[in-house]
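Section 5: illustrative case.
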């Protein structure tokens, strides 16, 4: 096969653009064909589905433009395997590994990423769509973003299509092979999705230590002593926050190592402008070009409006907590503003939700509260979307950060509110454990139902309905029934949102760290659920959801900061539970406490010593966290050295080939002169 024909090879990864009407179809078709895209249109159910496929030449040119790094052939980049990397150049294609097979030279994830980027950088102007037809059309935006920003095109969405061949290969690679999961996910979905699975696998391994200690606390406690009164439980309370600090630090090291291994450690994605961004046109003081500008003071006012709109949802969350607490008999003070007598009666001895119920009735309100939390969060999600859009962010990155922080703050508040009330207002560690067990169990059951069972049923129902509708239309027109195309089939799938997967696991991480001694078995049980979650998520991404956009990233983004805050907060919560909410400290220093009506109290004159001891332990743990954070490098030394080595060899490789190119030009010049 000649180089020209090979470069014109169509790639197996395609993108689908879904339009609501066909007004500008000829213009879009002509423009894409002029830029080298292969297009295929399909009309179904009042929508137009445009499947676009790139050639190898287009992806190779885009790889060079985006400075993608690829492996060199042996002997081309030095003797260190990890350093045989260089920025891809089309003119040096034959010097890269796998260049003889253009179909597999770029991985499926790289093909999807480059196709997305090449589509957005398709050259176009207003004149390509007819003069005077597009009011408000901004041809300074990327191609697909510009089409979405103009209502005349009615471009509703666009997404990469699943590949049957790559799906089969992915399923074959991950089936009962967790060790190969990160490579398989990255190969098909890209680094952004792969980092989620790498983090989950890393978390499962690190949970082994607190899990074994938690099991040991139950198995080796003295006879007739509950786990709350075990003499070793204070050690566990102090161990878990310290474990969390080490976990965060070593995850950062592992994350940086994986980013280097995947060649995304120094990748900087350019700003991605939002199609919905609007403002006044002005001349940029930086570039001197015309741009859309939205004043910062107007956005600050919109932040205030967003806060006022979202505040009532906090009241709804507090109301749901009050109902749960009363049904669990956690509010016993009749003078308390949270007390609701009619509900509290259900939790009295002999009641259906009483603690002495032989059928574990006390778990019903807690699990019900977990379901209500999910419903409240579902409603809040729509409010968060509206308010984030209302703030009119310029770039996708700014929009995502604002949206994620809104949801994290509210939904974490919603999930942990009852636990903090019981731990630090009621000071009841037994009730805290019951509530924690109920929320933990409810979350796992709800997650299994909402994320696996219901989407699977919904997918099967939607596909069956779509197939019936198409066959009915074909029958009515007496045409031969045909199979649905991948574009139409994938359109019926749900869109994947990584927020829910990350958030639920981070909440579970908070159950483990923030309230460690209340439920020591939580770590051990979480290992099982994490492994189940990993396999479930890997399968639902392939069969239940649309293929997510492949994005090159160097970590898990804002979720690292969220976990860091949780670990720091766990130092405070566990020290307070140790000293104030339980009898744990009394196991070490019984002379400072006394029992009054079945509850512990400080002996006269010893309260200040207990408070001082709790805050001393807290400060020691904080100092240890600071020392760990600064003394342990964020990147392994071997990786730092390999980075420098790779950069050096890549520069040497470029200089060598630039020198060769200059030498060839000189020789050609001398021959012409002769």
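Designed sequence:
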């Amino acid at each position: 096969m000649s180089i020209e024909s090979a470069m014109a090879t169509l790639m197996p990864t395609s993108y689908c653009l879904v339009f609501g009407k066909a007004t500008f179809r000829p213009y879009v078709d002509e423009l894409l064909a002029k830029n080298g895209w292969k297009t295929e249109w399909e009309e179904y159910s009042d929508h137009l589905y445009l499947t676009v496929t790139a050639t190898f030449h287009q992806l190779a040119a885009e790889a060079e433009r985006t400075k993608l790094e690829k492996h060199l052939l042996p002997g081309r980049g030095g003797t260190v395997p990890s350093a045989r990397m260089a920025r891809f150049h089309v003119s040096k294609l034959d010097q890269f590994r796998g260049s003889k097979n253009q179909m597999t030279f770029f991985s499926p994830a790289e093909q999807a990423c480059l196709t997305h980027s090449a589509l957005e950088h398709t050259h176009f102007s207003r004149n390509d769509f007819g003069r005077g037809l597009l009011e408000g059309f901004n041809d300074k935006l990327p191609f697909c973003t510009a089409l979405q920003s103009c209502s005349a095109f009615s471009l509703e969405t666009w997404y990469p299509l699943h590949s049957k061949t790559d799906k089969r290969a992915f399923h074959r690679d991950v089936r009962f092979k967790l060790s190969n999961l990160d490579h398989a996910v990255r190969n098909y979905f890209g680094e952004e999705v792969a980092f989620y699975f790498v983090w989950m696998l890393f978390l499962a391994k690190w949970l082994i230590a607190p899990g074994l200690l938690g099991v040991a606390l139950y198995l080796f406690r003295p006879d007739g002593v509950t786990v709350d009164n075990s003499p070793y439980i204070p050690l566990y309370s102090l161990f878990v926050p310290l474990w969390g600090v080490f976990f965060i630090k070593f995850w950062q090291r592992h994350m940086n190592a994986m980013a280097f291994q995947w060649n995304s450690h120094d990748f900087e994605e350019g700003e991605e402008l939002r199609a919905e961004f609007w403002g006044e046109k002005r001349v940029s003081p930086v570039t001197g070009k015309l741009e859309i500008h939205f004043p910062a003071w107007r956005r600050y006012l919109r932040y205030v409006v967003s806060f006022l709109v979202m505040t009532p949802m906090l009241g709804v969350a507090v109301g749901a907590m009050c109902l749960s607490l009363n049904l669990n008999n956690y509010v016993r003070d009749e003078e308390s503003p949270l007390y609701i007598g009619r509900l509290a009666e259900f939790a009295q001895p002999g009641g259906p939700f009483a603690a002495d119920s032989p059928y574990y009735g006390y778990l019903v309100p807690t699990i019900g509260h977990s379901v209500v939390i999910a419903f409240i969060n579902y409603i809040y999600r729509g409010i968060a979307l509206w308010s984030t859009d209302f703030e009119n962010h310029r770039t996708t990155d700014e929009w995502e950060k604002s949206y994620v922080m809104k949801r994290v703050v509210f939904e974490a508040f919603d999930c942990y509110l009852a636990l903090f009330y019981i731990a630090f207002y009621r000071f009841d560690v037994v009730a805290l454990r019951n509530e924690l067990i109920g929320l933990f169990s409810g979350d796992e059951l709800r997650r299994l139902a909402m994320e696996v069972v219901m989407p699977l049923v919904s997918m099967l129902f939607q596909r069956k309905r779509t197939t019936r509708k198409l066959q009915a239309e074909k029958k009515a027109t007496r045409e031969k029934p045909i199979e649905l195309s991948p574009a139409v089939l994938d359109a019926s799938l749900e869109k994947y949102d990584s927020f829910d997967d990350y958030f639920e696991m981070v909440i579970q991480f908070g159950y483990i760290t923030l309230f460690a001694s209340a439920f020591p078995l939580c770590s051990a049980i979480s290992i099982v659920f994490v492994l189940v979650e990993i396999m479930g998520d890997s399968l639902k991404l392939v069969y239940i959801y649309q293929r997510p956009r492949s994005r090159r990233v160097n970590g898990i983004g804002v979720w690292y900061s969220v976990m860091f805050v949780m670990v720091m907060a766990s130092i405070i919560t566990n020290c307070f539970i140790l000293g104030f909410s339980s009898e744990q400290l009394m196991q070490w220093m019984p002379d400072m406490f006394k029992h009054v009506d079945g509850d512990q109290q400080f002996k006269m004159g010893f309260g200040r010593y207990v408070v001082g001891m709790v805050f001393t332990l807290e400060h020691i743990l904080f100092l240890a966290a600071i020392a760990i954070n600064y003394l342990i490098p964020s990147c392994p030394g071997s990786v730092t050295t390999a980075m420098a080595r790779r950069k050096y060899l890549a520069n040497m490789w470029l200089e060598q080939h630039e020198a060769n190119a200059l030498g060839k030009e000189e020789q050609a010049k001398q021959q012409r002169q002769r």
